Amino acid sequence: GRPFSRGNLYKILSNPIYIGQIMHKGTAFNGLHTAIINIELWQAVQDKLKANLQGHRTRATAINPSLLTGLVFDEVGNRLTPTHSKKGARRYRYYIDQQSEAEDQRTSADVLRLPAQELEEVVQRTLVSFLKDESRLVSLMGNIEAEKARHQIQVAAELAEQLSETYSSHQIYILQRIVSRITVHKNKIEIAIAMNKIWTVSQSETIAVGGLVTVIEVPVELKRCGMAVRLIVRALGELTRRQPDSKLVGRIAKAHKWFAQLSSGHSDSIQAIARQEKVTSSYVTRVVHLAFLAPDIVQRIMRGDQPIELNIDRLIRLVPLPTDWDAQRKLLGMIN
Prior knowledge:
3-stranded antiparallel beta sheet; alpha+beta
């Protein structure tokens, strides 16, 4: 009287008894019973099961696949595994040291919990840049013929283009194939690349373990932001380029809208806005305070150039903000 589980269904669909065979010690033998499924249908089902298994392994059908599954470790050797949480309709992905978290729940705030998209973007950008660096690639090829070197440079450039595309099962395949290990330290990320697999990534046969491994170091700064850690990349002296925080931008826009309603007389009180928006009066009051942020602070938030730890939760906790703009800049870490 219980529903079939996925494992039950897989066992039924892969059981050769329905095509007149009996399994014994891993080998199929012709049975004495009559088949009730023809071999063509049977083979079509096995092909489908095999395709589904491959898709599961590469996470090709996932909505937001974790590109670096099995590759990421912290500096003491603990594997970081993908996980996610949901808040409303939004899904937040992380790589987390679940072993340390399980050892002591009381110290979960100290567990390394990296936003997945930020880490994946750092790894992708670094690999794309490396695969396009012809002089560095040639220096790692050793003593080979010029024609072969040109071919391998072309292969690397094609891989770089494929990694630059949107998330796909092929991207996961490339990363799992050429990256040996990603180690996250407090001040850097190390990406170990199996060089022999770059030139053979398009081949179907299994490549022997070994060969030259080169390690790329990406200077980063890890900053805690709530329960997660944010990655600030300081590679090649470039500032981190981030998308504006939509929550921050949206709340500031709402603050100016509500303040305009109050100052124009369109709404006669905080309570009126609260009733209209179906929120509490204290919430409206806290949000309206954001309308008095210094213009340059607002501009930096619109560009995504604010300190990484300044999110909407922290900003709301700080209201009412000082009326002096210099005091605001100092409080929010925007002096320069």
